[in-house]
## 1
Amino acid sequence: MERWMIVTGATGGVGKAFCSLLADKGFNLLITDREISSISELASGIEKQYDKSVETFVCDMTNETVRNDFYQYIKNTDRHYHGLINVAGIDSEGQFSTKDYEKINMIMQLNMISTTENIHKILPYRDPDTPFLIINVSSLAAFQPMPYKAMYSASKRFIVQLTLGIREELKREGVLMSVLCPGGMPTNPLTIQRIEKQGFFGKITTLDTTKVVTITYKKAMSGKAIIIPGFFNKLLFFLTKLIPETVIARMLQKKWSKVLYMRCGSLSPKD
């Protein structure tokens, strides 16, 4: 019997790592991303290396019409799926009041609405005879208010709450649902630059993407709800529980205003 998994945001660092791991576990893949060249190259590589079938669907998850085309494609495949990995997401930083609203809306569409819609639309096509795995990718930023990254951290918190709520509804129906909340991962040059800007703190909370995905899959299959890979990331999570959110927000405002000032000079380091 063929087993199929769906991965959104497949061509990013985390997405690629999930695709490789799942193919190695024996799954065929239906993968999505925005650029046809990147997704076709990834599919070809996975098929050659793991001898598994990989179907692609070019999909901008911020676009409702294109998302609906994707769900229609899933319906037309007339098959049952064994899981959904919601990786697609977007980061953004800068002062909220000066940020273009289209960018804010894009964050909401991708991090919140498409994640919710993917789960709702794809659940009817799960295999009724086997556990259905859902992993939603959030962030360690979900557990703290973050000035200059306010929409990002809020949208990632939404993913955590959504996952934990739906998980309780569906766990008796054979659905395994987890949320991944990683620290920094060196997935692209911009992310690496941001990690380096954080100095020692950035280094100790950063983990290799393949390691993060391997840990996540193992813990998700065992039924873990919130997955935070890395000792220092877990420690940071517990420490944030002890400090009032208003204090954390004030501390992070000072930190990020300095980082952004050094990067572009657009904010006063005293703000």
## 2
Amino acid sequence: MNPLWPIRILFLSLCVTAGYAISQVQPDYINHEHASVFGILIGFGFGGLLIAVDEMLKGFSLRAFSATTFGLLLGSLVAWLVDSSGLFINADEKVRWIIRLCTFLGFGYIGMVLAMRSNKEDFSLIIPYVRFAPQSKPENLLLLDTSVIIDGRIADLIEARFIEGLVLVPRFVLLELQQIADSADDIKRARGRRGFEMLNRLQHNPKIEVRIHDADFPEEKGVDAKLVRLATNLNAKLFTNDFNLAKVAGLQKVNCVNLNEIGHLMKAALIPGESVQIKIVREGRDKGQGIGYMPDGTMVVINNGLSHVGQTVSAQVVSTVQTGAGVLVFAEIPGLEQSK
């Protein structure tokens, strides 16, 4: 259950009690023989209306609220200046209040919209030489998506203190993880359970704090779009293994880390002349070649290694070639030609 509901229920109870109390203390306010019933209904309706507004504003951040308030004040100021300019002084008194109402509503709406679309740098144009900055050092927020939680390498990096900060896991990511864990497919179900195991491991790690974030964006269709939106609002660093999500985040100026890219960068580089122990697992594309793989998945082509398929041999690196899929290594078995 949403942790806000107990507070909402308490607030609704207080509104109902207040409505009943007012009907008893000031019965003239409700001139009816069943004034107490009407008082209870009015209190319930008032509390329910505020709770409904609260539910509709779910996901509306404090930054958005402050920006909206500033825009409304600025728009109202402009509307007051227009109204005080004497532009409508000759208008009929019966219609002037309509003109004033439309002026204040119109400029107030425009001010709120412009403030919501602006960033903090735009306010420096309105208030010169002023920069809005937090007084304390901001937290390093680490926003995790579903793929990086299931992967589990983030937990190892945190335990090794390569990554430090406050870990945020959105509730909509937990929901997606639960759907994967409840899948009828055995592989997906295992991945979902592994994700929950990794979260439990992170929560029990004393080196870092993990928080579940309740923000949601109902207008956004997919989890990826919600993650980018949340990372933008919180100025958080997004961690993922999803190539497409990383690209979309980069286009929207979101600080994003793709652990797969880091893994490729951290692979040990093989130098020509270096010896490696490798198992030849299958035949190569060209005649006489054998194929083996390094522990990190790098493919090694061994010249004249076909006769050693299924064996672990000591091979010497001849050259390396950078391809779109990674590094391709060519090697040969020393002394093989001489023995033939």
## 3
Amino acid sequence: MQAIRSILVVIEPQHSESLALKRAKLIAGVTQAHLHLLVCDPKHDHSGMLSVLKSALLEDGYSVTTEQAWNDSQHKTIVDVQQAEGCGLVVKQHFPDNPLKKALLTPEDWKLLRACPTPVLLVKTAGSWKDKVILAAVDVGNTDLEHRHLHNTIIDHGYDIASLAKAHLHVISAHPSPMLSAADPTLQLSETIAERYRDQCRAFQAEFDIDDQHLHIEEGPADVLIPFLVHKLQAAVTVIGTVARSGLSGALIGNTAEVVLDKVESDVLVLKPAEVADHIDELIDRR
């Protein structure tokens, strides 16, 4: 987070208070990152509003540029501008889709999470992050190289947000329920699954300096446990990762980051490991 030099802020003209801009200003105030404000609209001119926002931000000491653009859809426009401007973070306010619409059409924010190679902060709340909990969700039981890199990214960003907001980092790792049909005997009993995860978590804790009070190991599906713990801890931000690659048919359906998005009562920062980000960059370059 500290290394981000430029932030793309998606401005929604129909909403008077931009929660995305509020969060972006918080981050830029600490990191000194440049703010690039974007309105995605093919029909109406918003240059006046962008000019007012720019003047106010410049007066407050921020580095800022503005743009209005459109390329077929909102998520494509955002990714195109992110690539052109070299922004290391996209900040956008999240508006939940109608359940029926979501059942028929893939939400634009889901498409953005799939297509954008950089971290995306989807803002859902107006409250302060200060002195609150930042909840990082990891899958400690998954030790392949891609997930290990993702764990590093999630914890690093979690610590960064906790530091800039003077907040407290907690970590959740969900493990599966027993499966009598599992080929591995250790996955057939709740006690052996829990013990196996505790062993893996001890190594994880040592690597990332996380004590028992700040680590939550729970049995069950992550998309249920994460919202439950966000509510219990009153977390301000949920940091979650995705290793799903854009462009692979069906690979992204049911991704935890997407399913959790409308369930949690917090802002959501979605991250990808470097390998996935590089892969998406390649797909963008081929367009």
## 4
Amino acid sequence: MQTESNSTTEPSEQPITQSPSQTLLNLPTPPRVKRYLAGCLGLTLVGCMLCMVIYVIFPPAPTDIVILGVDARPGQGYLTRTDSVMILNVSPVNDVSLLSIPRDVFIQVPDYGEQRINTINMLGEQEEVGGGLRLIKASLDESFSIEIENYIRLDFNGFVAVVDAVGGVDIDVPKLIIDYDYPTIEGGIITVQFDPGTEHMDGERALQYARTRHQDSDYDRAARQQQVVDAVVAKLVSPQGVIYIPKVWQAINAYTQTDLNLWDMMQMGPALVLGWSGHTHRVLMQDDLIGMRAGYWIPAYESLQPWIDDHFD
């Protein structure tokens, strides 16, 4: 048990600590930067209008994107396990689709056999830098016949920064959640609690909501992660979403790794705007899995494949 300190340190002598996203968003904005951001906003508006015209005349090909949230501690980089794995399909023809695979599910991995999906990134990175991305792409192709075109890989700082860049998100918490053993990035534990009802969450709070799992299960956690992604994208594709794009792009550049450039995102923009409100989302639950004798779960490929073929390319 910790006790309150009797230190008489003056307030000016106490260290001030901020998360990277707080530093990113709270720094004073000089006039020159304001003009730059205003120019970016204007160009973004023009670009969005142009993209809509091009989209109608020359609709882009469907795109499958894997989104990896890595469980990285300071100094680890990307040589670590993944905390979340999502596959996003953006198509001008079909509905936008989002599939989450819980971290404890085993899938087929080239040259490794069946492996827990949250270890694939680390296995590949141990071979070579960037190998985790190649191995997860090859594994999703071998297991589900999904050819991944693009990737987004981010750590906890990236998650927090993107949520803060859209001004936080409103999340409908379906039940009371109390986690007495929530792990901190420093290696300790704290208690976090979420009461039922709608809560406005900044990036740090949304990260806690997306990561907690001690009260229920990894399947529920995957569903919460989808809730946060849904809330972020919903704000971006809303009529006022264009005002968030400069800061979101700044956060992506600073804290995430992706092979998508700004033009790629603008090309996908119309499909997301038109299709996100009716998008299809799914989390692999226990009904979608087969229990193995060794005590692990694999996807029920035969029953899942028709749905995957309908929603991914």
